[in-house]
Structure formats: structure tokens, C-alpha cells
Design a protein that fits this description.
42% of the residues lie in helices and 13% in strands. It is of the alpha/beta class and 193 residues long. It folds into two domains: 49 residues, Helicase, Ruva Protein, domain 3; 101 residues, Dna Topoisomerase Vi A Subunit, Chain: A, domain 2 (3-Layer(aba) Sandwich), CATH 3.40.1360. It starts with a helix and ends with a helix. One of its GO terms (molecular function) is zinc ion binding. Pfam families: RecR_C, RecR_HhH, RecR_ZnF, Toprim_4. Belongs to the RecR family.
Length: 193
């Protein structure tokens, strides 16, 4: 239906998560209307990802160099570590502008069914970071089966080495009790203060 090069562009866009044929087609038509400068900027950004984006050697976050901005920042509290599943979670936590500790990115969650085991994640480097100066490790994984499994595993690994806490779960702000499922209510009761 379309010329081969245009079809190839549609196919490339459709490999993105959550992008179907129609959305990929729309992206391709949008790209077609870009001026030369925009296209060159896009190409440069894409090609620099493989060589320019690294994983922080301390926490596993995305970085331009050997260490990420949080690990290099001396004004942050390096004695409190927040453990997250992915770099996207850091952005969410930073948006609240209240947390001043550092991070540790697991780059996934334990999922036995998919063959993702603890050794496939960035867990051992977290254990290696724990010393007498670490006051608290906050586990901020999703409240899913995989997130809970990972949190439990890390909690047991760090037991007796430092204080380990978990983000509270429960009823969201603006939520209604009569619309809340039993599991969420249970977590809200367990985490009450």
C-alpha cells in the first residue's frame, strides 16, 4: 500500500511498546512532515542512546557518565537508599520533591514464571552497598505479586544489616471505601498509623 521505505518506518514505530499499526502509521506521517533539522536531531538522539547512555556503576540508574546525578550529588543523604524497579520510578518519586536520599535501580522484578530470578536483577550490588553508615533502605516496588516477592526477598537479604521499610499501600486520596477491594483495604489496615 505504501512505498517500502515508508512501510519500514511504520514497522520500526510499531515495535515500540503499546504502539499498534494505526499509531505507528500516524507517527510515520508525522515524521514525514518534519523538516531536515528535526529529522537530524531525532536521528542523532537515537544513535547516541547506545553509546551515550550508561548505567550508573553505583545504583544502576541511567547516566551520561560512570555515576548518575543522584550518586554524584553531595547534598543528598547517601545514608538512605530507595530501591525502585526502573529509572521511570525515580522520576515519579522526584516529582514529589520531598525525598532527598539516593536510589538503587533493580532493572526489573523477580518473576519466576518469566524466568527472572534474583541473580538476573541488580540486587547483589545493593547488598554490597550496605555498610554501617546506611540508616534505611526504602523498598518502593509496585504492589503486585512480583513487587511484593521482590520486596520480601530484599527484606530477608538485608535483615539484621540495616533498617528496611516498605512504601505504604492502601486507599488512594479521593478513593471511596465502598469501591475499594478487600486486598487494598487489608493493606490499608496493616499500614495504618
Amino acid at each position: 500500500m505504501y512505498p517500502k521505505k515508508f512501510e519500514d518506518l511504520i514497522q520500526a514505530y510499531s515495535k515500540l511498546p503499546g504502539v499498534g499499526r494505526k499509531t505507528a502509521e500516524r507517527y510515520a506521517f508525522t515524521t514525514l512532515n518534519w523538516d531536515e533539522e528535526w529529522i537530524n536531531e531525532f536521528i542523532t538522539s537515537l544513535s547516541s542512546i547506545k553509546d551515550g547512555i550508561k548505567r550508573c556503576e553505583v545504583c544502576g540508574n541511567l547516566s551520561d557518565g560512570d555515576k548518575c546525578e543522584f550518586c554524584m550529588n553531595d547534598t543528598r543523604n547517601h545514608n538512605v537508599i530507595c530501591v525502585v524497579q526502573s529509572p521511570k520510578d525515580i522520576a515519579a518519586i522526584e516529582s514529589m520533591q520531598e525525598y532527598n536520599g539516593v536510589y538503587h535501580v533493580l532493572n526489573g522484578l523477580i518473576n519466576i514464571q518469566k524466568g527472572i530470578l534474583p541473580e538476573n536483577l541488580n540486587i547483589q550490588s545493593l547488598v554490597n552497598r550496605i555498610n554501617n553508615d546506611i540508616e534505611e533502605v526504602i523498598i518502593a516496588t509496585d504492589p503486585t505479586v512480583e513487587g511484593e516477592t521482590t520486596a520480601l526477598y530484599i527484606t530477608k537479604l538485608l535483615d539484621g544489616r540495616t533498617k528496611v521499610t516498605r512504601l505504604a499501600h492502601g486507599i488512594p486520596m479521593g478513593g471511596h471505601l465502598d469501591y475499594t477491594d478487600a486486598h487494598t483495604l487489608l493493606k490499608a489496615f496493616e499500614g495504618r498509623k
